[in-house]
Amino acid sequence: MRQPAEKEKNQPSDTKTAPLALAVETSGREGSAAIGIDDNILVESAFSGRLRHSAELFPAIVRILEGLGRKPRDIRQVYLPSGPGSFTGLRIAVTFGKMLHFATSADIVAVNTLDVLAENASEYIENTGIDAGRIAAILDAKRNLFYIALFERSGSGWRRLTEDMLISAGQFLEQLPKTEPTWLLGEGLLYHSKAFLAPHTRLMEPEYWPARAHCVYRLARTFARKNSFADPVAITPTYIRKPDVLMSPDEPGL
Fold it and tell me: Phi and psi (nearest 5°) for 113?
């Protein structure tokens, strides 16, 4: 089992007094949390195993804060996934964010998980040198359906070519442009990568498939810099599946 991974970044000189921002990623199987100041991420901590969100989210945040000599009241902004994602994972993140808002008046930014995965693709290009001009972020929606969004490279970022699509692998491949390769990533490939193999698709390495807190942080900062914050009461996540009490006994879920 993986041990919690904590990565410290270059820390600005005012880490003891400046307002903090917290990013949480619990939309998929692997969870993590990151804390930073403005655009600088100070520490990121990955949970020790899959689906450990409820057990490890709060302890991870406390551990990071203690390492920085700070308190929960110092968190002035919270960055959350809004889905698509696991019902339980998104509920944990959104509930935590709302509690922190009502306790400390921290502002909230909620970001789309497929957009977060596009941030993973930027890291893939930077780390590998592969010029991926078009990507597809893929999440498993169960029952042979997937949440998919298509993006193309635009400067140093990504421009959406589609909204979130709820679609089968076959339907996606039929409408996918074939003029250049499309690079695929996302946890939807974990058990279904073969369904997306085609002459015009390429798979990124599995390490780039899960969403990460530092990517939530980086994406959410584009909204925070514009003071574009969510209404805590109105946040409505996009769940990959229904709550357990509404599911049929044989329906799989996260």
Answer: -65, -35
Residues 91-97 have a mean pLDDT of 93
Percent residues over pLDDT 70 in the chain: 89
**CATH homologous superfamily of domain 5-112+211-246?**
ATPase, nucleotide binding domain (3.30.420.40)
Please report, for the chain, the start and end positions of each structural domain, with discontinuous segments joined by +. 5-112+211-246, 114-208
ω into 84 cis (within 30 of 0): yes
Would 5-112+211-246 and 114-208 be classified into the same CATH topology? Answer: yes
Residue burial 97-109, b: 16+ Cβ < 10 Å; e: rest: bbebbeeeebbbb
Long-range contacts of the stretch 63-68 (C-beta < 8 A, 24+): 63/6, 64/6, 64/33, 64/35, 65/35, 67/6, 67/43, 68/15, 68/16, 68/20, 68/35, 68/42, 68/43
Q: Which of 74, 95, 82 is nearest to 229 (CA)?
A: 82
SS3 state of residue 165? strand
Architecture, CATH, for domain 114-208: 2-Layer Sandwich (3.30)
pLDDT tens per residue, range 189-236 = 999 999 999 999 999 999 999 999 999 999 999 999 999 999 998 998
Burial of residue 138 (CB within 10 Å: 0-12, 13-18, 19+) is buried
| Bridge partners (DSSP) listed for residue 159 | 152
